[in-house]
Every structure is written in structure tokens, then in C-alpha cells.
Request: fold
Amino acid sequence: IVRAVTKSGFEHRQLPYYTYAWLREWFLSSRGVGRNNITESHVGPCMNQHTAPSEMTHLPYDGEYSKKRLSEELQDVLEDWYGGPLTMTSIYGIRRYTNNSILRMHVDTVFTHVVSAIINVDQKVDRDWKLKILDHDYNEHEMVMKPGDLVLYESAKLLHGRPDTFSGEHYDNIFIHYAPVESGKGTGV
Reply:
């Protein structure tokens, strides 16, 4: 039902160093500041947050360390990969997965999550927690992400998740989503 919008469907890269440096610095300095960290009680059926609580650290919308800055620094990367203009539709913040977390295979929202990115900000793992993703031909691929890694992917098209049980202290990712400009979607938040 959802059409492919890129040739490869996904790509594993490195986040630009300057972006990773400020994002990680902000995240590590924000941890422990109670107002920034929210325990997620209901994320949906893809996660087992009642067994392994997850936590969200919200990035401010504007300012030196912000959603706006992150979007601006990644816009060209995603537009180049996609092959056209995009509008940012959402950045949730940095989600901290904890020991025994599972992220079931799923696809994301069709209109707002057309072209997306996962950034691994930090992790303390006992073993790699692999991202599994099906390509356009339904072949399964596994990717190991390390801090500073970036995965570009068609999140509304390609089935993806981390269905194996996480073993470690924490695994911290931020997600950013875009839609084609012609779709008319996009809140910029």
C-alpha cells in the first residue's frame, strides 16, 4: 500500500561529528534533571514498557540545543538521500530503553514518517541490540548501531524493530521524521 520513495529503503551512516558532539553533550548534561526525563507509561503495542520501562528526555524546540537545530543540520542529508524537498514532521526526543526492552517489528505513521532517521546517542550494553529491517524485497537485514551512528530509513514502508531482548543498562536513541513537501504534512515540532 505504501510506495517506496528511495532506491535502497535504508542506509547506515555516521552522524556528522559536530551534530553528534552537541547532541550527546546536551543529553548527558540533561540526564538527572527531573523535568527533562519522563517515564513513558503507554507508548503503544510495539514496546514492552510495562516490563522494561522506557524514558524520554525531551529536546527543547528552539535554542542552541534544540529540535530545530537538529532538523536543520540533518535536513540536507535526508533530502539528498530522498531526492527532493522534505519537511520535518516530528522529533520525539531521546528515548532510553532499559534492560529487557523489546521493540516489536512495526511500521510508522504513513503520512508523517515517510523518511526517517535513528540516531544512537549513547548506550551501555552487554551485547549488541540489533536493528532488524526488511528491505523493499522483504529480505531481513540486521544492523549494529554504535553511539554517533545514523540510520536513514523509510519508516512508514519498511517493517523494522528490535525484537530480540535488550541486555544491558541503557540504549539511547532519538528519532526524526520527515514527509515530502508536496504532501502538505509537517508540524515542525
